[in-house]
Structures are given as structure tokens and as C-alpha cells.
Design a protein that fits this description.
alpha+beta; Small Protein B, Chain: A; disordered N terminus
């Protein structure tokens, strides 16, 4: 039931998320932005590493995402870490909220990008936290894959 599209220009990526969490499912969500936020994103400036998504009431919110102020903006510039509403269908929001409550999962933003139509989208993952030994196993596996590739290149 994962919903993804061909992704255009990537603005920000949460690379630490795949290391710290098991990603069970991903969804593409729209994001409500102001004009200066869109201009700052088009310059490629954003940070979603410390952010998370939270269902509140009937809505889903992106919390603690940092989009810096647009340099050429005027006094109506946006606040860099304000809460931003995510746009998903009601059924998807309900499913994410119930999974988050029942199974102890969290909603982690994975990637902020512009799609082929030029709209800002956020890839959100339903994730379960990894334990320390899981992180070590992931790192060990990644190192082995690198070594294997080096050996194959040398032959």
C-alpha cells in the first residue's frame, strides 16, 4: 500500500532515519507552505533530520522541520521551525494514527522534494525504532556489501 511517485528535485533527505528505524511503510504527503518557504526550498535549503510527524485531531502535522528564512523576503517572512500541515486522505491519516498508537511506531519524514509538477512533497515513513544490536548488524552488513563490491571490481 506504499504510495510513491517519480521524485524530482530532492531538497532535503533524512539519511539518519534508515539507520535508526525499520521503515515499514512509506507515503507521499503534500505539505502546506507559504510563499517564502517555497522560495527557500527552491534554493535547496531545508533540514528535516530532527523532525517528526504527529497526528493531532483529524490532521497530520510536521513538527520541528527547519526551513530557513528566504533572504530576499520582507517583514512577512516565515518562521523557520513552525508547524506545517501535511495533506493526506482521511483514511491514510486514520491508518497512520492507529498504527502509531497500537504498535508503538513513529512517523518519520524521509525526503522533502519537488515532484514532476513542481509541487513540494514529503515522503513519510511509518517506522519502528532499532535497538543498538540492530544498528550494529545494519552497519556490519553495509560494510560487507562495500567490501564485496571492491573485491568484484578488482577481479
Amino acid at each position: 500500500m506504499a504510495k510513491t511517485a517519480e521524485q524530482g528535485k530532492t531538497v532535503a533527505e533524512n539519511r539518519k532515519a534508515r539507520y535508526s528505524y525499520f521503515i515499514e511503510d512509506t507515503m507521499e504527503a503534500g505539505i502546506v507552505l507559504t510563499g517564502t518557504e517555497v522560495k527557500a526550498l527552491r534554493q535547496g535549503r531545508a533540514n528535516i533530520a530532527e523532525s517528526y510527524a504527529s497526528p493531532e485531531g483529524d490532521e497530520l502535522w510536521l513538527i520541528n522541520a527547519h526551513i530557513p528564512e528566504y533572504k530576499s523576503g520582507n517583514r512577512n517572512n516565515h518562521e523557520p521551525t513552525r508547524r506545517r500541515k501535511l495533506l493526506l486522505k482521511r483514511r491514510e491519516i486514520d491508518r497512520l494514527a492507529s498504527a502509531r498508537q497500537k504498535e508503538g511506531m513513529t512517523l518519520v519524514p524521509l525526503k522533502l522534494y519537488f515532484n514532476e509538477r513542481g509541487l513540494a512533497k514529503l515522503s513519510v515513513g511509518l517506522a519502528k525504532g532499532k535497538k543498538l544490536h540492530d544498528k550494529r548488524a545494519t552497519e556490519k552488513n553495509r560494510d560487507w556489501q562495500r567490501q564485496k563490491q571492491r573485491l568484484l571490481r578488482e577481479k
